[in-house]
Design goal:
alpha/beta, Aspartate Aminotransferase, domain 1, Aspartate Aminotransferase, domain 2, two-stranded parallel ribbon, about 45% helix, globular, binds pyridoxal-5'-phosphate
């Protein structure tokens, strides 16, 4: 009686497609949909440092108490150093508030609610962007887009982005993806980030970084350069950070919301309001995943973990290079070099919606209709099938 009028909601654009993949009975189907790192066996495995950390903390992880509303201070200290770099973190943490969140998504949502109450109700995301950005920000305000990608030139388009930013009202909260842009794989250079920072300051736009792939692009330090630049330049900003990908802790839901403030007094006030948002959302975060991250980053395993991240990045880049090489052989006269500079797990392949539909229906190769592929879904066994499928629909 109460639920009679509830309409069916649309399936999630990414998880919904993964469900369709799971239901497909074809043996040679390929999943290039969801942003999960897969090894050569196409498994999302526990990193060996994560496995060792789990064992090490088994004994000490015995407390059943709540964590504080904004989580474990020791964990936040470690992730702060990782993102901002030890020197900048040491010099700036007096003005950077940090709250442990339930993955990167809840950092985005908590930050959005905070902004909507205290900064402004207008949000802007890149066109295109990860579909969940729009869904999250629509919960708390009005969402606009700024240009980001040139379809014609198949690359990031700085001048289009800057004009887009200049058209936004002051105090608009602008979502910026730190590195490994989802879905295009195209990132601004350091000089371009400096221009973006300058424009954001001049137009009084509020930067809200989403850092979900630190270490998957050029490296741990390189992938955090834009956040560090904005912080050094004294811009106030928010950062939603995810440990899902670089620690392969997808199911543990480990993330952080950072708020870079101008001074310690503002940090204190901002933090007090963010805590109120968290308290009415999930009250306080889960402990286990954060303890794993803290154990790895705070001890001798840190070096091994960095090597594991390097290995994940290396496999992604190898698969991307192989894909480009094999596509060029299969599709004579077509050039796929535009895929080579892409960073992180995603690449945007120039495909029309009907071509994506054919890939799914005829070849069992699953990807969202934007043409985004998860390069980590490729391995030495399925890459030829994918190249054949792509070659056929692009003919
Ligand atoms: C760009 C981007 N931001 C945030 C997230 C969310 O990460 P989490 O799983 O930690 O919520 C993802 C996950 O796919 C993502 O691609």
């Amino acid at each position: 009686m109460f639920y009679e009028e509830v309409p069916e909601g649309p399936p999630d654009p990414i998880f919904g497609l993964s469900d369709a993949f799971n239901a497909d009975v074809r043996v040679n189907k390929v999943n290039l949909v969801i942003g999960i790192y897969k090894n050569e066996r196409l498994e999302s495995e526990l990193l060996s440092t994560v496995r060792a950390a789990k064992q090490a903390i088994l004994e000490e992880d015995g407390a059943a108490d709540y964590l504080p509303i904004d989580g474990s201070k020791a964990f936040l200290e470690q992730v702060g150093g990782l993102l901002f770099g030890e020197a900048l973190w040491g010099a700036s943490k007096g003005r950077i508030y940090a709250a442990q969140t339930v993955g990167g998504t809840s950092a985005l949502r908590i930050g959005a609610e905070f902004c909507s109450a205290f900064v402004g109700k207008k949000f802007a995301v890149s066109n295109p962007t990860w579909p969940n950005h729009r869904q999250v920000f629509e919960k708390t305000g009005v969402v606009e887009t700024y240009s980001y990608y040139s379809q014609r030139e198949r690359r990031f388009d700085l001048s289009a982005m800057l004009s887009g930013l200049k058209a936004l009202e002051p105090k608009t909260v602008v979502l910026l993806q730190g590195a490994c842009h989802n879905p295009t794989g195209c990132d601004p250079t350091a000089d371009e980030w400096a221009e973006i920072a300058k424009t954001m300051r001049e137009r009084q736009l509020m930067p809200f970084f989403d850092v979900a792939y630190q270490g998957f692009g050029r490296g741990i330090e390189e992938d955090a350069a834009q956040v560090r630049h904005f912080t050094k330049e004294g811009l106030e900003c928010l950062v939603a950070y995810s440990c899902s990908k670089n620690f392969s802790l997808y199911c543990q839901r480990v993330g952080v919301l950072f708020a870079v403030a101008p001074d310690a007094a503002v940090k204190q006030r901002v933090g007090s309001q963010i805590k109120r948002v968290i308290r009415t959302s999930y009250s306080n975060p889960p402990a286990h995943g954060a303890r794993i991250v803290q154990h790895i980053l705070g001890g001798p395993m840190r070096r091994d973990w960095r090597r594991e991240v390097d290995a994940m990045r290396g496999r992604i880049s190898e698969m991307r290079n192989e894909l480009v090489r094999k596509l060029a052989l299969r599709c004579r006269g077509k050039n796929f070099d535009y895929l080579l500079p892409h960073q992180g797990m995603f690449s945007f392949i120039d495909l029309e919606k009907r071509q994506v539909a054919r890939l799914i229906e005829e070849f069992g190769i699953y990807l969202p209709d934007s043409g985004r592929i998860n390069v980590a879904g490729l391995n030495s066994k399925n890459i030829d099938d994918v190249v054949e499928g792509l070659g056929s629909v692009l003919e």
